[in-house]
Amino acid sequence: MKKAILLSALASLVVTTYAAEPSVQSQIDDLKSKIEALQKVQTSSHTEMEDRVDKVETASMVNKINWGVDFRTRVDSFKQTAANGIKSSNDDVWSNRLRLNMSSIITDDMKFTGRVVMYKNWADSYAYPYAGMDPMQGRRPSDSTLSVDRAYVDWTVLKGEVPVALTIGRQPSSDGPSHQFKDNTVRKSTYSALSFDGGADGVVATVGLQKLTGIPELALRVGYGKGYQQNTGASYTGAAGISDTKVGGVFLDAGLGIAGSLVQISAVKATNVVSNTVDAKGSTNANIGDVSLYTAMVEFTNLANTNLDLFAHYAMSVSSPNGVTSSYYGMPMGLLTNTTGDTAEKTGHAFWVGGRYTFENALLNNPRVGLEYNHGSKNWFSFTQGSNDVTNKLATRGDAVEAYYIQPINRYAYLRVGAQVINYDYSGSGMQIGAPTAMALIPAPNNALVLDKLTNYYLLFNVNY
Amino acid sequence: MKKGFVAFLMITVALSAFAAGGKDLAAKLKLDASSKAIKQWERIFGDDGKMGAMGIDKLSAGDQDALKKYLTSHAADSDHPEAAGL
Questions:
Q1: Quick check: B46 contacting A, CB < 8 Å?
Q2: Is B28 inside any structural domain?
């Protein structure tokens, strides 16, 4: 356009100066006609371009959801030893997991994120025990149906110096820090995965404090959700005599002024935890007490540009049984106890440390190696039933070590080969019911049902785009 | 245990204090990573003219690498972090 104006101005100047000379005049006329033709072409091409951009814009406005695919096939080789010393193994358990990720910008201050999942073992529609339970849906092998793993709206209610956002729905509460290193991805959840991993419905308020305090990425989160809601079946009000499990938590996130760093401290309390027990007559579910979890974590991605990622998590669980037990096929089950009337507080501890290193080798697409270790004490209990993988290693009352190698194939796909070795010191890891018991003290025939050692060698193919 | 955790934190913070990040460079040059797809950023880093127009050519080779890594890993079609309120 500017060029056309310039040429036009030049043409006018030439007309004024050389109007008297006929040969120059004809050249000017020729030039003017060429400029006019050029302007017509430019106008037409501008209109055509605008039409095309309109089409793209319309398509992007009509296609309200952006879809992403995260697909995984893995083979696991499990070897286990029961508390009675009997060994068993399954050399190749194959599974497929499909995650369809959704995202959508609704308005400038509102966006939607969701994920539906199919996760199943090959040639099998058998649901993993408890796979239908709320935190585990889509997170344990089941059949080929799709489950909604997460579906939430982030709504920025207040902007400015202290922004406030509400996250409403099925939360980003699974595969949290620091599982992203092993999963060759970025942060995928709000909470430290040592204490919380799995699907969860709730509302979370996030208050941004960075501008106010000058502390990088400082955010305070307050969350409310339910671990159990007694309104199922044909009744609006649910059966009498059992209370909902309500979960409240406070989380403080901050960076350390270093790219890729995250520090988080949190306190979570779940009241009226349920036993989820059954016996021959059916459900014997009961409220068995309260659980509090206190967690601190720190992680660094590409620490000081060394290609090294490091993390450390520590957590304490405080379980307060209310003295109630419910029957599990005749055995009384309370919160970390088998004794009716036991109200003694039970404190557990756990930590999880690890690192990953990226080799700068363009020929091999920069492969990665990682090592993780976690330990849990006798009374350690966490909300990780919908954990990152089926072994729920971070709930271990004992020790777990995992080593892995990631071989990137391209920007989106990679292979991972790894090994997990878990030594259980006490029974019932990951379970809220029953007193944790040292392996040697578990009587027959129950000792045949309790795991003492578990080894898992695995190979997986993952593509995420 | 607690002492070990604190020691880990102190060592890592000290190590990181000297690291320059691609995020800071992007902010300095007023480049929004999510405004372009990965391939579009890669095209820019392969074109001296475009790099010059954005001021990237004035950075050291190391800083250019860090910036490219940041921009491509936070591009519109990259794997985005997820957490409540993010």
A1: no
A2: yes
pLDDT of residue A54: 86
pTM, full prediction: 0.85
Q: What is the mean predicted confidence (pLDDT) over B33-60?
A: 91
Answer yes or no: is B13 within a domain: no
pLDDT of residue A333: 96
Of all residues in chain A, the one with the smallest CA distance to B9 is A298
Residues on chain A bordering chain B, Cβ-to-Cβ distance under 8 angstroms: 103, 113, 152, 154, 165-167, 171-172, 176, 185-190, 204-206, 208, 219, 221, 223, 253, 256, 258-261, 263, 296, 298, 300, 303-306, 310, 312, 314, 349, 351, 353, 411, 464
Given a cut of 60, whether residue A150 has pLDDT beyond it is yes
Do B86 and A154 make contact, defined as CB atoms within 8 angstroms? yes
Read off the pLDDT of residues A292-331 as tens digits, 9 standing for 90 and up.
999 999 999 999 889 999 999 999 999 999 999 999 999 9
Query: Residue B51 is part of which domain span?
Result: 20-73
Tokens of B39: 């391939």
**Domains of chain B: total:** 1
In a domain, B58, yes or no: yes
Give the burial class of A302: count Cβ atoms within 10 A of its Cβ; 0-12 exposed, 13-18 middle, 19 or more buried. buried
Contact (CB<8Å) B85/A221: yes
Interface test with B, best of A251, A300, A310, A349 (most B CBs within 10 A): A300
In eight-state DSSP terms, residue A183 is T
Count CA atoms within 13 Å of residue A79 on its CB side. Answer: 7
B66 lies in some domain: yes
Say whether A360 sits in a helix, a strand or coil. coil
How large is the ipTM? 0.74
Residues 6+ apart with CB under 8 A from B85: A154, A165, A166, A167, A204, A205, A206, A208, A219, A221
Would you call A298 and B9 a contact, using CB atoms and an 8 Å cutoff? yes
The rounded distance, in Å, linking the Cα atoms of A57 and B69 is 29
CB contact under 8 A, B85 and A204: yes
Q: Which range is most confident: A24-38, A156-170, B15-29?
A: A156-170
